[in-house]
């Protein structure tokens, strides 16, 4: 006979809830926020909403007017993601960003600290020949021992996919543990603009 909802073990129900939030059962998934806070993981953030695909022809990195940029919804989304970091106990971070304006603006709107432009995070959407060397440079950076505040890397879909095989949505945060050989192990995916809160750190 099927169990009633009242008879269903609480552990099972909790597992269902966390599966819906994080993509796998509670007993098989680490807490992404805790991993970020501890420094054992890095946050790979795709820039917030920026209408369009790729970049206009003849765009210039030193001129945001020539680029595809965040919409107002994207700016609200970036601020909401920053607020979610703070709700989950991360009030400051080392923030590295692609030099593209939509990434730099996303990174600044997080309001987690100074933003460091980092060339390996730049888009290679229209320059596939740069994919392998940039990914290798990012892997080498992540494989080095690190002791410091949580790290957030703001970049593009192609960069995150090359590193993790995950195709993130705009504003989606991929939490990944760097491994010694340069690869990363994905711990969790957090939803754009409405990131699930870790109950252990949410302010009353």
Query: CATH H level: which superfamily?
Result: Phosphoglycerate mutase-like
Low-confidence region ranges: 1-28
Structural class: alpha/beta
Overall pLDDT level: 83
Second CATH tier, the architecture: 3-Layer(aba) Sandwich
Q: What's the CATH first level? A: Alpha Beta
Number of helices, where a helix is a run of at least 4 consecutive DSSP H or I residues: 6
Count the beta strands: 6
CATH topology description: Rossmann fold
N-to-C order of helices and strands = HHEHEHEHEHEE
Backbone shape? globular
Distance between the termini: 41 Å
Overall number of structural domains: 1
Q: What Rg do the Cα atoms give? A: 18 Å
Portion in helices: 25-40%
The proportion of strand residues reads 5-15%
Q: Major sheet, described briefly?
A: 6 strands, mixed
Properties at a glance:
204 residues, Rossmann fold, alpha/beta, single chain
Word description of this protein:
The chain is an alpha/beta fold. The protein has one domain: Phosphoglycerate mutase-like (Rossmann fold). Helices cover 33% and strands 15% of the residues. The chain is built from six helices and six strands, in the order H-H-E-H-E-H-E-H-E-H-E-E. The protein has helices at 10-22, 32-38, 72-87, 101-110, 131-143, 157-164; strands spanning 42-46, 94-97, 115-117, 151-155, 173-178, 184-190. The protein has a six-stranded mixed beta sheet with strand order 3-2-4-1-5-6, with helices on both faces. Helix 4 (101-110) links the parallel strand 2 (94-97) and strand 3 (115-117). Helix 3 runs parallel beside helix 4 (101-110) and helix 5 packs across helix 6. The longest helix has 16 residues, at 72-87. The chain is globular and about 40 Å long. The termini are far apart.
